[in-house]
Amino acid sequence: MKYVVFLGDGMADFPNKELSGKTPLELAEKPNMDKLAKAGAMGLAKTVDDSLSPGSDVANLSVLGYDPLQYYSGRSPLEALSIGVELKETDVTFRANLVTLSDEAEYSEKTMVDYSSGEITTAESTALIEYLQENLVVENFALYSGISYRHLLVWDKGTTDVNLTPPHDISGRKVTEYLPGGEFGELLLGIMQKSHELLTGHPINQDRIKRGLNPANSLWIWGEGTKPALDSFYEKFGVKGTMISAVDLLKGIAVGTGMQVAEVADVTGNIDTNFDGKAEAAIKALSSGQDFVYIHVEAPDECGHHGQHDLKIKAIELIDEKIVGPVLEYLEASGEDYSVLLTPDHPTPLELLTHVKNPVPFVLYKKGQGEGSGLSYTEKNAESTGLFVEKGSELMNMLLGK
Fold first, then answer.
1. Which of 42, 156, 340, 390 lies at a C-alpha separation of 20 to 30 Å from 123?
2. Nearest residue to 87 (alpha-carbon basis) of 225, 284, 265
């Protein structure tokens, strides 16, 4: 028996006036997703508890079958696992984005122009982080490079008693009300301000400006957490799993749960990612003895954060054409029994540019399944079926037939 999760990060949305009151899922040409929805069981699932923030960390843990109320210890420690940072029990970790802030003289008066510095390349960002590692020396803090704009700050014997805001939640807003708060807020703010002083005139940023690109002119610290303790995926569910993702967060979850991580060339976490390569990696894993693959695609989420209406629709269509279609074709040709789960982790509405806690539309399909919903895959149709899963972490048990 083979099991596949097709996870379109942030794929769900609200009806949007710029899309004639439709959602991207309603407008996208997605014959493979619609086929699954019509033949399978479709409904809504609550992947984020009301007491938690609707981050991809919480939501993907939930879809993977790990109740965040039991397992969640923060986002950044999961990313630390991915990049191979050994954490002590006393370490506190933070996500350190390379962001673009506006040019006002006072840091507190600046605007969050771009939480991703124009999707800065990993080569450029690694050089900038190495520069900060050498020149931004703060006792008990260590900075580690990740992928693109996503990096890691570790505080030895630190505390999570701080008030921090994800930069993607404040796109286009002044940062005044969102600067680090709490007893140690000034300490973290000082690191951010010093990073801005160091990065503004860096040759890489000057070159980016000349090329019409957003400069990575500051660190933005958020996503605090402590060393995670995740159960083995195999011991918990009895299947051997592989994670396929461009994002350190998902790779870190895989490392923490003992899943294999498939390395795919030219994956970016955006709409220019290697969709074909992800499908090929999934097929390779399934044909090489793995029971389960989790195919995570970040592109719809990034398009949602940037308010890119047409590109979000296109991202959904590319997932359908280049990943869902080929993987389903392989599963059918293999002759084996299989079950699939199609779902977002959370919605990322274009009108809000950030995540929300609303339930997500999911489809569960098992090979040879009889009568299904008979409906195409949309938020509205999923709600109309009346099927509701209160705890998103139960989706994995439903997929595996437990």
1. 156
2. 225
The residue from 167, 199, 226 where one domain ends is 226
pTM for the whole structure: 0.88
DSSP secondary-structure letter at 108? G
Query: Is the Cβ–Cβ distance between 354 and 335 less than 8 Å?
Result: no
Q: In 3-state terms, what secondary structure has residue 350?
A: coil
Distance CA 45, CA 301 (A): 18
pLDDT at 371 over 90: no
* Strand 92-101 to 360-366 pairing: unpaired
Q: Is the Cβ–Cβ distance between 171 and 305 less than 8 Å? A: yes
Q: Domain for residue 79, yes or no?
A: no
List residues bridging with 94 in a β-sheet. 153
**Residue 169 structural domain:** 92-226
Angle formed at CA 171 by CA 109 and CA 301, multiple of 5 degrees: 160
> What is the rounded distance in angstroms from the CA atom of residue 217 to the CA atom of residue 6?
35
- Does the residue 24 lie in any domain? yes
Alpha-carbon gap, residue 389 to 48, rounded angstroms: 12
Whether residue 370 is predicted with pLDDT greater than 80 in this model: the reply is no
- Split into its structural domains, the chain has a count of 2
Rounded Cα–Cα distance for residues 206 and 222 (Å) = 26
**Shared-domain flag, residues 23 and 63:** yes
Look at residue 80 and tell me if it is in a domain.
Answer: no
Question: What is the β-pairing status of strands 292-297 and 92-101?
Answer: unpaired
CATH code at position 241: 3.40.720.10
Model confidence over 312-360: pLDDT tens digits?
A: 999 999 999 999 999 999 999 999 999 999 999 999 999 999 999 999 9
E strand map for 141-262 = 141-147, 150-155, 218-226, 241-244, 260-261
Residue 219's beta-bridge partner residues? Answer: 98
| Statement to judge: residues 107 and 121 lie in one domain | yes
